[in-house]
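Weekly sync, protein design subgroup
Attendees: M.S., D.O., the rotation student, P.L. (late)

Item 1: inverse folding check
M.S. brought a backbone from last month's batch and wanted to see whether the design step gives back something sensible before we order anything. D.O. pointed out we never logged the input encoding, so this time it goes straight into the notes. Structure tokens as presented (297 positions):
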């Protein structure tokens, strides 16, 4: 079992413990005014601040049809009443227990989101209170566990793997710029990524490409500003990651075995299919002619 699954599960438990009391209290209040949608809106609006970092709350009946308006910090939008939400990602959790959905892309924000779902029960099961939380702004919670490290597979990256490796570029940039990752190494041959985070700099986490692409990836680390001690900029990090993509997609004979970047000392390392490792400052890597990395072929 990979480390990410354990970290995410621990954080989900911590988030559930944080959200459940407020969701239960709100659901109890909604049960007393269930028959009146306007009163439901009022209850949700008055209690919106009780849900930490929530960006949207609403009510659905037990079949997944929206009964209330959309309630945000900006007010009440009744245009969303009566829409069918039965196929939303959280719908599989429409049961008579509090649950957190898997991460999914919000239609409202186009960003990773999770939904807290709590049943509304009076004399009978009436429906559900649903609160949406943008993964980028979840409360900071501390989780820890032992490190598990597994990786050993030697083969040239396939076109499919190369494509997925390119797709993680934006995610890795966000992890560095917003989630405290200061050092990363991409192992192209084994399809793995190693991440070092500033709150735990002496140990690394090892992820598969599938795990990096999973929206739940952002649950692994708490949000963190780009460190002022960094010897490079976010813009330069983006350019480095783009150059990594170019170099590992050259052709079938020339490719990167691995590449790394460390923002605290502004260094990169490269290991090619035809030579040993190269170490250099980021500025040299960005301003050098790409063809010179291939001179040894």
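Designed sequence read out in the meeting:
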């Amino acid at each position: 079992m990979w480390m990410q699954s354990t970290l995410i599960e621990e954080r989900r438990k911590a988030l559930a413990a944080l959200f459940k009391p407020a969701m239960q209290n709100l659901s109890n209040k909604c049960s007393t005014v269930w028959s009146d949608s306007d009163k439901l809106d009022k209850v949700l609006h008055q209690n919106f601040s009780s849900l930490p970092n929530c960006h949207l709350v609403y009510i659905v009946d037990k079949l997944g049809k929206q009964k209330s308006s959309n309630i945000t910090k900006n007010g009440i939008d009744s245009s969303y009443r009566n829409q069918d939400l039965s196929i939303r990602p959280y719908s599989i959790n429409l049961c008579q227990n509090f649950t957190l959905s898997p991460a999914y892309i919000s239609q409202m924000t186009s960003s990773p989101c999770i939904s807290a779902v709590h049943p509304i029960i009076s004399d009978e099961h009436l429906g559900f209170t649903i609160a949406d939380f943008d993964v980028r702004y979840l409360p900071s919670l501390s989780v820890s566990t032992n490190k598990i490290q597994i990786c050993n597979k030697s083969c040239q990256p396939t076109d499919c793997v190369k494509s997925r490796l390119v797709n993680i570029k934006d995610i890795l940039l966000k992890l560095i710029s917003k989630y405290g990752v200061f050092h990363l190494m991409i192992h192209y041959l084994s399809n793995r990524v190693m991440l070092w985070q500033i709150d735990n700099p002496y140990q690394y986490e090892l992820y598969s490409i599938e795990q990096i692409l999973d929206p739940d990836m952002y649950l692994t680390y708490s949000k963190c500003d780009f460190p002022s001690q960094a010897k490079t900029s976010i813009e330069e990090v983006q350019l480095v990651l783009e150059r990594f993509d170019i170099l590992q997609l050259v052709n079938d004979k020339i490719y990167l075995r691995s590449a790394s970047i460390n923002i605290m000392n502004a260094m990169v390392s490269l290991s090619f299919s035809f030579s040993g490792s190269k170490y250099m400052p980021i500025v040299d890597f960005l301003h050098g002619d790409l063809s010179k990395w291939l001179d040894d072929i």
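Discussion: Residues 1-5, 142-163 have pLDDT under 50 and may be disordered. The chain is about 30% helix and 25% strand.
Action: P.L. to compare against the previous round before Friday.
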